Amino acid sequence: MDLVFSDIHADIDALDTILGMVSSQEFKKRYGEFSRIINLGDILERGVHPKEVLSRLKSLQESYPLYSVMGNHDEGFLYNRLVSASSLESMDAHAKLNSEDMSFFKENKDGTFGNQEFIDKKYGLFCVHGGPLDPKNITPKNAQNDSWLYQRSWQRLTAEDFEFFTYAGYHYKASSAFDEARKHVKNHIILCGHQHQEEAIMQDGIIHRLYPDLKPIKEKISGHILERKEIEINSSNNYLIRLGIGGPEGHYVKDSEVPHFAIVQHDTKKVILFAIYPTD
Q1: pLDDT at 85
Q2: CATH of segment(s) 2-277
């Protein structure tokens, strides 16, 4: 079973809440025990505890396979690009990071950091922060200094019936995402984050939006209210599943946000989306 989270955004309390939940005996008894972790990016910026988050993730690497992709905020910090919505307190906390802290991000031979995607053909997973489209196929020749906004870390699912570019990134249709992922994995589950809101779409010849029909079920586990939404996976179909925000600490509507995560159950062929609410 895989533990998946996205957009932790330097929120150590949220990360520890997620880890405490999935490590509890109650959770393991009901849903199983995770054997690896998939981080869908944006572990930095907005929140005020980047050092603690990086330390926790490096510690997890000692016990579990941890697969990470780059988020746009991770890139923003590493490449000194201004990305919106970090407070002065957050920027000050990030300014105190040292080379040992940043060693979590592996530098590539071309000077870039980390991976834009994690593909697992055995389980049919195509994991990205924003979207799976190949930047070479969507970046115009005259993009020049804006070409980085077409990367998988910046792509975002559109609610429109057309694709377009803004300075928030390239907005793609679900059909394009499925077409691209099929080049790598025949029947696949695209896992992404970036937009901070859950979504679930299925392709079985035509495209269906599953999310509105997912029934949320709440239960009390490990001192919290855990809300789940289950997506049964048919191995003949394709899926695009977007996780909600993992770390709401620095989010501008944080009072209405809670930590989100997901698990991928390979034996029962399910993806389950979770949100963790306080009991009061």
Answers
A1: 74
A2: 3.60.21.10
